[in-house]
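The passage that follows is intended for readers who have already worked through the single-chain material. We present the inputs for a multi-component assembly, then the predicted structure in tokenized form, and finally a short commentary. You are encouraged to pause after the input and sketch how you expect the pieces to fit together before reading on.
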Amino acid sequence: MSAGESIRAIQALAHSLGRAVQLMEVCGTHTMAAFRTGLRSLLPDNVKLLSGPGCPVCVTPIDYVDKAVALAGRPDTVVATFGDMIRVPGSRESLEQARARGARVRVVYSPLDALAEARANPGTAVVFLGVGFETTAPTTAWALREAARDTPNFFVLCGHKTMPRAMAALLAGGEVRVDAFLCPGHVSVIIGSAPYEFIPRQYGRPCVVAGFEGEDLAAAIRMALRQLADGRAEVEVQYTRSVSREGNAKAQAAIREAFEECDAAWRGLGVIPGSGLRIRPEWAAHDAERLLAGLDRPPAREPKGCRCGDVLRGLCAPPECPLFRKVCTADQPVGACMVSSEGTCAAYYRFGKT
Amino acid sequence: MCLAVPAKIIECSGNTAVVEIGGVRREANISFIDDARPGDYLLLHAGFAIRKWTEDDVREYRDLLKPLADMGGA
Amino acid sequence: MTFPTIGKSASERILLSHGGGGGRTKQLLRDVILPALGYDGSEKLDDAAYVETPDREVAVTTDSYVVRPLFFPGGDIGRLAVSGTVNDLAMQGAAPLALTLGLVIEEGLEIDVLRRAMESVGRTAREAGVRIVTGDTKVIERRTGDGLFINTAGLGSRYRGADTGVGNARPGDAVLVSGTLGDHGVAVMSAREAWGLSSRLESDVAPLWDMVRGLLDAVPGVRCLRDPTRGGLAAALNDIAEASGAGVRIREDALPVRDEVRGVCDLLGLDPLNVANEGKTVVVCAAADAERALAALRAHPRGRAAAAIGEVVKGPAGRVRLATRLGGERMVDAPSGEDLPRIC
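Having made your guess, compare it with the prediction:
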């Protein structure tokens, strides 16, 4: 079925369903793709696409940023990070601001680049900011395993989080009505589609694992509406070229080897049990947490008036935040949802009409 | 979060492959992939391959994007 | 006191005294900079130059160039310093009359690097048909030892009454672009070792006055010219929309983008609309003139891939809309800040 046919099918299904339908996607890349491809503008009025906590930068608690900034100020230390993180405001400043003051912060494309930097500079502590979901966690895990062999000056500040528990927490919280989920495409390449099966089973909500082209999202939305119209609830994979039920066994093994499950604080959602990853005790020597002793850090403080937490729970669309576009803009962001290149607020700001 | 792009393997040995996207080449780590060969397509994320596409997968991708290409200037 | 001539084969480096204004500075000018620019060293070095202008008004512009790395596929800081300023004049419909050349050089820079950059300045100036008439040289204390910063100011004269300011666009006008988008930014990024990319992509950096003059000859009533440099096409179109109090609507499938540029942008999570160009112009003209404008651009080697990409519309005023491949629509925002490669 072509995109045009999918869109016509969406319109027909939405019409026959008659009622307002709320689909939630939990992947920042989906948030951006839905806007960038113009798909949002093609959805019928009664089909709403909510954005959930799918942007790992946005859900990283402010004290993680404060830790990163403190580490950047440490002597003989370089903080290596994905580009997404450097403009996120901490309680006092962002990594970008710390860099302007002279702190050593380097943007990398891969944890391998951070590892290479550590190997090339044995006298420098290289701290990699491990942020991201299950798509990225295996890559950090691999770098840790390599470092454990021969690179004592490579560290990871681990902020990795896992998706399925967060989706369960949203449903259990009951604050926002989610009729069906669009499941993250590349997280699912790693974990497979099986981990979402508890959602239709326990909560009766359809799930469709979606790809990132406009055509993929259109097809996935059509499939979700079809399930709703049929009264079915199951996990379907639209992104079949990349996602299997079992996922990538080697990548999953890498995650298990380097990390163990832990409770994690999500900005806006609070602590979700078992939703985080932390470095296993065997490799504690590479955990950047131990470098924090004695470093000055401000008390963690969220910016006043910022509704990032509500946006991340799908409770409030960015235009409903009092700061949106008035005080909080892409040039002068207040919260992470605006700073992050995949933040919901950034998406609305860049791609949405006034 | 999950920017990943499909790239074709030009050469590979051990844990590393040289891949090409639109004529641009980069190294990629293939430790998470079984049996990667030149000519295969890989999905890349943060310098690692997270999935190998079979020929069916590549065809599915091309078919997905084709109808619009056929429409030409429509 | 005399100093030995700076020889071509020496691996000498810039010293603080080269910026002192005394004998060493004169030596640097005489042996390295002036010959590279095409002068034979017999010129008297006055404090200022007189430039003849045909009219009572003169166009003037200035820009500073701080690109890293200094040499990248398809160009270098020298070529950029001449092209950028010549193009700013061209965007205002002004033929270039003269350029100034201000150098801030870091102590420790290899003199050979300076020479090559200056030779590039000279070659590009000849290509653009403009002379460097005055300049300045300063040396700052060593930091990383490879710094070269260039400022050029340009004087120009209005070509046949051309009025191509950014605020002239009117609803109904056609929006064109003179060639492929994103080549420069991606070429520079590919050259930065940090991203580990190897590509055959070259920067498009080039002086455009010749092409623009051909365009103005064919369509004297061109409404706006804008070069999509920092911030890419998105920035240029937003500037036009805002200044003109109109909207701009472009079509995704009409945007000319090379496969390699798309590949690198996909990989690094960049949008080609936001990536810098240094050898392209946006053209806004009356719809009836669009075909003639395209033909004039395409007749020039630097405009072969010129394309019509959209139109000026009534609203929303000051905003730019994109009709997507999928058949939907979304806004194109003016980018803010550094476009960093993403992973998310």
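Commentary: The domain at 1-302 of chain A is CATH 3.40.50.11740 (Rossmann fold). Residues 214-230 of chain A form the longest helix (17 residues). How closely did your sketch match?
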